[in-house]
Give the backbone structure.
Amino acid sequence: MSWVTGLFVYVIIWWVVLFAVLPWGARPPEEAEPGHMAGAPARAHIWRKLAVTSVVAGVLWVGAYYLITSDVISFREMAK
């Protein structure tokens, strides 16, 4: 796997994990203020979610890298 392919795989994994992590801990405010949507989270904790997303995506990328570069699953044999 080239570094460009590895980067693209990481970015795709990162975005999928981000959409899985975004709802964690999202609580609506007790009383919605005028002009604010009632379903918007009171505290989004976006920086924490971005950090968790990066770590989880890194772990998943290492697993994907191992599967792609090892002979555990041979993608070249499946393509034949």
Q: What stands out?
A: The two ends are 19 Å apart (CA to CA). The chain has a mean pLDDT of 87. The first helix runs from residue 3 to 21.
